[in-house]
Amino acid sequence: MIQLTHEPLDHAALLQSVSSHQAGAALLFLGTVREFTAGQQTLQLNYTAYESMALGQLEQLQQDALQQFPVTAVGIQHRLGELALGDVSVAIAVSSPHRADAYECSRWLIDTLKQRIPIWKQEHYADGRVEWQHPGEPTGQVAEADSEPQSGASTDGQ
Amino acid sequence: MIQLTHEPLDHAALLQSVSSHQAGAALLFLGTVREFTAGQQTLQLNYTAYESMALGQLEQLQQDALQQFPVTAVGIQHRLGELALGDVSVAIAVSSPHRADAYECSRWLIDTLKQRIPIWKQEHYADGRVEWQHPGEPTGQVAEADSEPQSGASTDGQ
Amino acid sequence: MKEQPDPAAALTVTVLFFAAAADIIQRETVQLQLHEGVTLADLQQQLYSRWPELSQRLPTLMWAVNEQYATPQTILRAGDQVACIPPVSGG
Amino acid sequence: MKEQPDPAAALTVTVLFFAAAADIIQRETVQLQLHEGVTLADLQQQLYSRWPELSQRLPTLMWAVNEQYATPQTILRAGDQVACIPPVSGG
Description:
Number of helices of chain C: 3
CATH superfamily of chain A: Molybdopterin biosynthesis MoaE subunit
CATH topology of chain A: Aldehyde Oxidoreductase, domain 3
Number of domains of chain C: 1
Oligomer: heterotetramer
Order of helices and strands of chain A: EHEEEHEEEHEE
Order of helices and strands of chain C: EHEHHEEE
CATH topology of chain C: Ubiquitin-like (UB roll)
Strand order of the largest sheet of chain C: 2-1-5-3-4
Low-confidence stretches of chain C: none
């Protein structure tokens, strides 16, 4: 299952989709909206995407994972639009005969997704700032003057 | 949540129990009954436990994880009794501000659970053999004569 | 630059902008008239000349042609969809 | 061995057996009459004398006293619950 949606993620269905009699382990990773990052309070996030490319890249990511790791099945969901605190932004499910492979594949998937898939996160902070998260770029340049400290993303960054 | 039960695991409730606005990541590990291990076909498993001690040890494991890793919440469920192919034998949920910690804590929990908690798995093979899994012991000695090859466990072992 | 002055060989390319890049140029789509043989690098130069703050504020832009990440050497064809991709932050 | 012959100091200890250990001795519980000052090691020797196949088939048994893993030096008290724990295989 590969899904890009504005609706809340049905990660139970995602997990179910990777279940198999060949698997001894299944791993479900959820990225959720965190309230505090480096002392800054997030109120909500807004995710936008180059949707058609993102969907194709997610399918490619799934295929790459199945080729690179001895896993049974892989599924990925990513949510778009406005997310509140605690909401799930991304769900990744992996099943495998042996658990070490599920852990390694799952980490590779979320790490690579964050590098490769054309999806962008806009932070809405409690102090009124609205800022695109651009890992590797100086922050505070886009939506605001350069008075802001470096800030990480408010999901599961770093 | 710490749970030892003969009923099917409600791992959705377990995952829900670790959700938090402080967390940017949540990870749910499931151990499931695998059909083939080293060419041997499993029909079902039977889990038994020193229940009161296992429950206490699971609670201790939860506390140890919360002390050793920068995680937000930890929950563990283990099922007992007869399990069929695909059934979930163990569920471990971890949430954390940063995802690397959830992965590390989750792996530590399942590795340590398999070393420390007094629960035993009995394999029912397609060829009629019934065998307790005792990691580190020669196999095939207990329920049968010593004509059996070394066999791994049919969940997520090794 | 290998631009050919033959107007019969002109081609139209659509460029999509996302997130901070769209905010900077204050639009999400730009149509460009180019010539046969032009590369993605040529197109980037045109855009950076028109909106210098694009490369100043986003020094590590990536680019895609027809939904695949592309190198500056990529030769553009009529109808290609180019995308200007600021550092991604999904997950 | 520090067994004291004073019968007034006798104590009763219950030993639980699980999984393969229970199969080998064909019971799940054994009651032992011991003396004050006896250690877990002493109790193990009594059991291994009675069921030699226990240590032969399960050379890496662990032991618990009152639901905590215990060393052979542990001194047993009246009413203690001892458990003979074959290598665990949960998960």
